[in-house]
Backbone:
């Protein structure tokens, strides 16, 4: 049986996209070395106009690796990164990998409780953190050394000078970027004092673990997905193959997605390096800052989430900013509204297509062809070297007929090897033959185009970020007067919002806003319920489990 018969979706691939990619034969460290060799003088990183070439990036990585080696970091050790998008993040990522150690990415917006849970789980003894959050990391889990990163050190000289001016507005801008981190080691001084790591230092192999990325999968307590150099390099190669119109050494990628998220990590930290692209870094998404950068260094490729596309297109029209340099845009993490596609393509003249993936798959497995064969409303077809099946959720050995809804299984070189120290959880999702259960109910037509119907579990996706109901509910139950709680996702115009139904002690007079305020102690801002609905009781199953689906239905009905 030929490849087209086995994978009918390959007929819909854009011209030039192969059915399979070559097996990666080197680590992510080799990926950077190859880029430095091919594109040395080209700008690799742009941060508010401060630039770093590929040659300079490779040198900084070698020095940072030596600095970390002197701190005792070695092969297999976990190193926590708690950083926004900045040049130091890119350097730290590759420096940790150069030592054969394992990167663990963390959201710098997490609360101390959230960080403590993950740091305790993976046991990193060294953490590299934004200086504003370094005090939250110190002493958590097994961490014994915190290296603090000052974002302002990476700014252009003139901007650094301007931030020293004794004006209230300037002081506010500076305090938003940096803060004292007592007891932490300064990153810039450590790297400046280190020579390059000796060239003969053992390098990682392609099969070694490169990354622990925390995810709840489809539900539950976040757990570390174990991703190898092979997984991440394969997904970068699949992404490169998916867009044959890209020009190596001539593209500019905007990193508006956070690098600590699986989507931003692959599209910006590995894919961009693999094609010798200039990566323009933004610590957070701000439409005006992004559009200011467009005039300085026009983007050609933009990975983002639907709300970002809608905001950028709208503001660009209002400001008269030309976005026609963006030939390709890839949307993920949440459903892409057709109206957003229409607006974006009117403003840019480029293509906006949707993809699908999970942290456990590095993350992309499915994408709409970057060609007229794309089908808006679907998430597309399986990537090169990727197989997909639709099965009975109750019996994954039984395949569903084309067009019939079932659970999506995927198989490919980007699929992870399991959850960190969670063999039982791993066994639930990794099946014989290399298949992985996604937990999503989908349909697949005869041409292989996949449409997401529903999630088996109640994972909430808000602004492109995963929110696990159990985390929100745990935070709510910590409030003394909250007796019970259920968190669900309700649809908004461009995604979902977190809404919680709570039962409170009738003897306590409290407002929904007061409950939201209490949540902020334990939850990152995007996890705090946008709305709190106080109810007399919650629906339970016969075994005493809260029926979140019924809660959601009641809230949607306004009951």
Residues:
């Amino acid at each position: 049986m030929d490849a087209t018969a086995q994978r009918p979706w390959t007929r819909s691939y854009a011209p030039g996209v192969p059915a399979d990619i070559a097996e990666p034969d080197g680590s992510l460290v080799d990926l950077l070395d190859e880029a430095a060799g091919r594109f040395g003088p080209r700008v690799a990183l742009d941060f508010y106009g401060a630039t770093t070439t590929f040659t300079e990036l490779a040198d900084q990585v070698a020095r940072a690796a030596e600095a970390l080696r002197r701190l005792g970091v070695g092969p297999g050790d976990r190193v926590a990164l708690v950083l926004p998008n900045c040049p130091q993040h890119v350097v730290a990522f590759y420096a940790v990998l150069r030592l054969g150690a394992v990167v663990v990415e963390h959201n710098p917006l997490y609360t101390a409780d959230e960080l403590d849970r993950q740091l305790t789980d993976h046991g990193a003894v060294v953490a590299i953190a934004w200086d504003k959050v370094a005090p939250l990391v110190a002493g958590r889990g097994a961490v014994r050394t915190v290296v603090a990163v000052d974002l302002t050190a990476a700014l252009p000289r003139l901007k650094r000078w301007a931030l020293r001016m004794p004006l209230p507005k300037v002081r506010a801008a500076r305090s938003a970027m940096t803060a004292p981190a007592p007891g932490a080691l300064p990153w810039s001084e450590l790297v400046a004092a280190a020579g390059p790591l000796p060239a003969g230092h053992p390098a990682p192999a392609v099969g070694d673990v490169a990354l622990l990325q925390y995810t709840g999968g489809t539900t539950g307590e976040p757990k570390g997905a174990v991703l190898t150099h092979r997984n991440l390099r394969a997904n970068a190669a699949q992404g490169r193959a998916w867009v044959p119109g890209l020009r190596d050494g001539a593209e500019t990628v905007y990193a508006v997605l956070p690098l600590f998220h699986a989507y931003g990590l692959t599209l910006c930290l590995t894919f961009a390096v693999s094609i010798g692209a200039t990566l323009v870094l933004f610590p957070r998404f701000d439409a005006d800052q992004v559009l200011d950068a467009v005039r300085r260094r026009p983007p050609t490729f933009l990975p983002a989430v639907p709300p970002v596309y809608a905001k950028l297109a709208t503001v660009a029209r209002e400001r008269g900013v030309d976005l026609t340099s963006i030939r390709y845009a890839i949307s993920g993490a949440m459903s892409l509204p057709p109206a957003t596609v229409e607006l974006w393509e009117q403003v840019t003249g480029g293509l906006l297509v949707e993809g699908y993936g999970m942290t456990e798959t590095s993350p992309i497995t499915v994408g709409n062809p970057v060609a007229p064969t794309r089908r808006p409303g679907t998430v597309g077809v399986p990537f090169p070297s990727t197989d997909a099946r639709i099965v009975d959720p109750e019996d994954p050995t039984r395949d569903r007929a084309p067009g019939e809804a079932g659970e999506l299984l995927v198989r490919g070189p980007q699929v992870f090897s399991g959850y960190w120290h969670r063999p039982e959880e791993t066994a639930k999702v990794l099946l014989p033959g290399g298949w992985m259960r996604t937990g999503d109910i989908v349909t697949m037509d005869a041409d292989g185009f996949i449409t997401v119907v529903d999630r088996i579990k109640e994972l909430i996706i808000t602004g492109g970020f995963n929110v696990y109901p159990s985390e929100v509910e745990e935070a709510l139950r910590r409030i003394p007067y909250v007796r019970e709680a259920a968190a669900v996702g309700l649809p908004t115009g461009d995604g979902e919002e977190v809404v919680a139904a709570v039962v409170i002690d009738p003897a306590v007079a409290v407002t929904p806003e007061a409950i939201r305020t209490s949540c902020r102690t334990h939850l990152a801002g995007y996890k705090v319920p946008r709305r709190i609905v106080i109810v007399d009781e919650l629906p339970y199953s016969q075994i005493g489990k809260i029926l979140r689906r019924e809660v959601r239905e009641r809230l949607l009905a306004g009951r």
Remarks:
- The domain at 54-204 is CATH 3.40.50.980 (Rossmann fold).
- Residues 54-70 form the longest helix (17 residues).
